[in-house]
Amino acid sequence: MSLKSHAQGSPFPPTKPGVLRIYSMRFCPFAQRTRLVLAHKNIPCEVVNVDLVKKPDWFLALNPLGQVPVLQIDDKIIPESTATCDWLDDVYPENRLQPVDPYLKVWDRVLHEYISKLIGPLYGAMRATDASEIEMKAAEIKKHLQFYEEKLKGRGDGPFFGGSKPSGFDFLMWPFYERLPALTILKDNPVLEIEADKIPTLTAWDKAMRQLPAVKNTMFNALSHVNWYKSVGKGTPDYDMYLAEH
Ligand SMILES: N[C@@H](CCC(=O)N[C@@H](CS)C(=O)NCC(=O)O)C(=O)O
């Protein structure tokens, strides 16, 4: 199936019995979470990319919130990135991602709850226009990175939050971390630069994550993210940007 985004008016691509499908958007960090899990577990899945400005009616009928990601198989519809990742992990248990240890499981959930404290200032900084606001958001981002640095350090030898193998939380966090370098370039402001020496454990995690086939398979480099966010900033998101190469 073509990866070109489906906009309003485009016909519904018929589903096939027993075939898993993801409704996605190529630059969406939430949908990337699901695609990371799909790739990590080698789960065959067809991809239907959606134009989130001009959403097709059939997409809104599937998920009235109008958000990606959504998984679909036969009569089952699974929206929300965290729910999709948990469902995939339960239905395809090989390469298990959720920790078995109840304490680790609880802490993965807590770490995920705190992610909003990183996502908020990340997008806040992207939208910010004046320098003092950018500085404030940069300080918030750095504070929360420090928090994750300490938590990751407490997980033992690493390099992942899941130890020697990634856990579900590694994939929930990665898409947002991937976008941090783009933010510095986009805003042309060094105050946003990640200070690797202050977060050595996270920096090693970043390196290890980039080696994972699932990450290689789903990621965009910083400049591609910058160009995507520029298109968003102009009010004309280019959903099919870099489609030929990616
Ligand atoms: N809570 C949702 C958030 C998903 C989300 O915000 N997706 C964005 C794209 S990155 C979206 O679909 N936006 C379209 C809209 O909100 O109308 C999740 O975790 O899946």
From TrEMBL:
<dbReference type="InterPro" id="IPR004046">
    <property type="entry name" value="GST_C"/>
</dbReference>
<dbReference type="Pfam" id="PF00043">
    <property type="entry name" value="GST_C"/>
</dbReference>
<dbReference type="GO" id="GO:0004364">
    <property type="term" value="F:glutathione transferase activity"/>
</dbReference>
<dbReference type="InterPro" id="IPR036282">
    <property type="entry name" value="Glutathione-S-Trfase_C_sf"/>
</dbReference>
<dbReference type="InterPro" id="IPR036249">
    <property type="entry name" value="Thioredoxin-like_sf"/>
</dbReference>
<comment type="function">
    <text>Exhibits glutathione-dependent thiol transferase activity. Has high dehydroascorbate reductase activity and may contribute to the recycling of ascorbic acid. Participates in the biotransformation of inorganic arsenic and reduces monomethylarsonic acid (MMA).</text>
</comment>
<dbReference type="GO" id="GO:0045174">
    <property type="term" value="F:glutathione dehydrogenase (ascorbate) activity"/>
</dbReference>
<dbReference type="GO" id="GO:0050610">
    <property type="term" value="F:methylarsonate reductase activity"/>
</dbReference>
<feature type="domain" description="GST N-terminal">
    <location>
        <begin position="18"/>
        <end position="96"/>
    </location>
</feature>
<dbReference type="InterPro" id="IPR010987">
    <property type="entry name" value="Glutathione-S-Trfase_C-like"/>
</dbReference>
<protein>
    <recommendedName>
        <fullName>Glutathione S-transferase omega</fullName>
        <ecNumber>1.20.4.2</ecNumber>
        <ecNumber>1.8.5.1</ecNumber>
        <ecNumber>2.5.1.18</ecNumber>
    </recommendedName>
</protein>
<dbReference type="Pfam" id="PF13417">
    <property type="entry name" value="GST_N_3"/>
</dbReference>
<dbReference type="GO" id="GO:0006749">
    <property type="term" value="P:glutathione metabolic process"/>
</dbReference>
<dbReference type="InterPro" id="IPR050983">
    <property type="entry name" value="GST_Omega/HSP26"/>
</dbReference>
<comment type="similarity">
    <text>Belongs to the GST superfamily. Omega family.</text>
</comment>
<dbReference type="InterPro" id="IPR004045">
    <property type="entry name" value="Glutathione_S-Trfase_N"/>
</dbReference>
<dbReference type="GO" id="GO:0005737">
    <property type="term" value="C:cytoplasm"/>
</dbReference>
<keyword id="KW-0560">Oxidoreductase</keyword>
<dbReference type="InterPro" id="IPR040079">
    <property type="entry name" value="Glutathione_S-Trfase"/>
</dbReference>
<feature type="domain" description="GST C-terminal">
    <location>
        <begin position="101"/>
        <end position="241"/>
    </location>
</feature>
<dbReference type="InterPro" id="IPR005442">
    <property type="entry name" value="GST_omega"/>
</dbReference>
<keyword id="KW-0808">Transferase</keyword>
